[in-house]
């Protein structure tokens, strides 16, 4: 199962239409570190969340994935809890493992999200069995 440590960003056609499936005009503004329009790292999302003008909503109640918007900017991202739910699903269904994309997108030193270093990775790995399988 894939675990994205990034967010997708879009520019809304109208700031008053900011729900799921709202019309967009293109990719959102690039982040200060990733420098790629339409794409933010998890820690860049944390930086934006420190600005109280962003409105945060749940995608679907109970799913734990969220989106946030401010003016014409719209950002979709997974939360630590949604990653924990995916890890629990992997274990409960005896799936072969998880794929994290990518390690450098997590809050590597804990200074952006203030949840310690690598909060996404630590929270997902803590639910997985500690058995390592080698095919060498």
TrEMBL record:
One GO CC term, this protein: extracellular region
One MF annotation (Gene Ontology) recorded for this entry: chitin binding
GO biological process: carbohydrate metabolic process; chitin catabolic process
Alphabetic keyword roster: Disulfide bond
Pfam families (UniProt xref): Glyco_hydro_18
SUPFAM superfamilies in UniProt: (Trans)glycosidases, Chitinase insertion domain
Domain GH18: 1-131
InterPro entries according to UniProt: Chitinase_insertion_sf, GH, Glyco_hydro18_cat, Glycosyl_Hydrlase_18
Signal sequence region: none
The keyword NAD is assigned to this record: no
Name assigned to this protein: GH18 domain-containing protein
Organism: Didymodactylos carnosus
